[in-house]
Amino acid sequence: MELVMKQFSMVRKFILVFGDFSAMILALFLSLWVRYGVIDTDRFNNHLNIFYLVFLLWIVVLYLSNLYKLNLLLKIDRLIINLSQAVFISTLVTILYFYLLPSLRITPKTILIFYALFTFILIFIWRLFYLKINNLSNLKNHVIIIGNDSFSKILAQEIEGNQNWGYTLVKIINYSNEKEINYKTIPYNQKQFVNLITQEDINLIAVQFDKIHNHDEILQRLSLVIERGIDVIDSNIFYEQLTSKVPVNQLNQIWFLYNLEESEKILYEHIKRLIDIILSALGCVFIVIFIILVPILMLITNDKGGIFYIQKRVGFRGKIFKIYKFRTMVINKEVSWTTDNDQRITILGKLLRKLRIDELPQVINILRGEMSFIGPRPEQPTIVKSLNTKIPFYSRRHIIRPGLTGWAQTQFRYGASIQDALEKLQYDLYYIKNRSFFLDITIILKTLTIILGFKGK
To answer: Which of 46, 106, 127, 437 is most buried as measured by Cβ atoms within 10 A of its Cβ?
Structure first.
């Protein structure tokens, strides 16, 4: 059965590669047609012969971008992100290829933009069509969770509530025979475990390693299934990969010591700080326009009060600093979370918040080194003091500079409760652990989408 499944997987991947290759040929044809209006056979063949190596390079980049991992096909947003990244990188590689080899005797610079656009569209359409003609359940990874606590239930709910992730929950195996965690929960039994692996075509097992280190029987069985090519992954890591957030309630001090090694981020942090300085210096010139415009709009809307709102926030390593914003609320000294349809927000303030313009003065904080463009949003000292006593490890979000925008802001709604703060902390810790220039670019693009969609709050 295992050999048959591997062969079937290879066939499906070959079909994907063939479809991508065909899409690239069609993209080249359409690019030449748009560029020249008519298709000359000799011109097309001349380009096609030279582009064969380009097609191969693009296939390699698609592979490196995980676009031949079958489970990713089922998550459309991830497909779009990975495909966009692959097309961007492939286009840069293609430009280098042609300009380093001018002897190829063609000037593709006039069609590369068309080619990249058509390739993205055609491959995306092809992948959607591929999903339609296949039985989706056959593409999904069949998962077993080994655990006996509430987190196993949380993980199960995430899997079953997000079928587009490409995973099907088969069973939860409760190795302690305690209370039921989920309707699919069964007690651990060696024979039943083996039968599940073979009969249900299991290809992934999620287990909390720190909870089973004394269960020799289960550890031995897991070692055997690895030899059969079945993936075994820590439940916490699996949850993180699925949700792009860290399960705070499952963490301990060791997790932070192991995962937040700052020495590995030194070069990244120095370059990021340099970028912050350059962009914030340019931003200081840019906000002069709004310093002139905002007071005029305040007069028009009869908004009485100062132009700026200055408030204390908790920043890098717990240091208190003053944050600058364009005022969007009526003057009120009450310290509380902002909620949806908050009555304190002015008419002009709603517009400024929708476009995130109210945050622009914080380029001053960025230039002074108190903030960065990307990072966890800073909170008020009173709120932080309260959350430190109610949410585990809340203060750990202060180990990097707070940001103008962040991963939590692009993934979660506006926080207005302790539970919301916990949820956002999980996204903040994910960013702190995985921060990179690619993740920063992703956050910037998502933030621009929020701004252009008038979704700011």
So the answer is: 127
Nearest to 202, CA basis, from 226, 176, 238: 226
Structure tokens at 322: 């003053």
DSSP lists the bridge partners of residue 207 as 146, 234
**Residue 111 backbone phi and psi in degrees, to 5:** -115, -5
- pLDDT tens per residue across span 163-189: 666 688 888 888 775 566 566 777 777
* Domain 140-243 top-level CATH class: alpha beta
The residue written with tokens 């075509």 in the block is 201
Domain ranges of the chain: 2-132, 140-243, 263-452
CA distance 27 to 396: 48
Which ranges of 68-111 would DSSP assign to H, the alpha helix? 76-100
Cα–Cα distance for residue pair 409/447, rounded to 1 Å? 8
- Could you tell me the pTM of the whole model? 0.71
Q: CB atoms < 10 A from the CB of 293, how many?
A: 11
Gap between the Cα atoms of 107 and 101, Å rounded:
11
For 198-317, strand residue ranges (E) read 204-207, 231-234, 308-314
**How does strand 204-207 pair with strand 141-146?**
parallel
